[in-house]
Amino acid sequence: MKPERIFALIAGGTLITIGFASLFANLVLKTESWRIWPIVAVLIGLGLTAPGFLGFSRPGFGAFFIPGIPVLTTGAILLFASLSNHWGIWAVAWPLEVLALATGFILAGIFMRVPALAIPAAIIGINGLVLAFCALTGMWQAWAILWPVEPLAVGIGLLILGMFNRSPGVKLAATILFSVAGGGFFITSLFSRFNTTILRFAVPGMLIITGTLIIISFLLRLPTGETTPPVEQPVEAEQAV
Question: 3-state SS string over the chain?
Answer without folding.
Answer: CCHHHHHHHHHHHHHHHHHHHHHHHHHHHHHHHHHHCCHHHHHHHHHHHHHHHHCCCCHHHHHHHHHHHHHHHHHHHHHHHHHHCCHHHHHHHCHHHHHHHHHHHHHHHHHHCCHHHHHHHHHHHHHHHHHHHHHHHCCHHHHHHHCCHHHHHHHHHHHHHHHHHCCHHHHHHHHHHHHHHHHHHHHHHHHCCCCCCHHHHHHHHHHHHHHHHHHHHHHHCCCCCCCCCCCCCCCCCCCCC
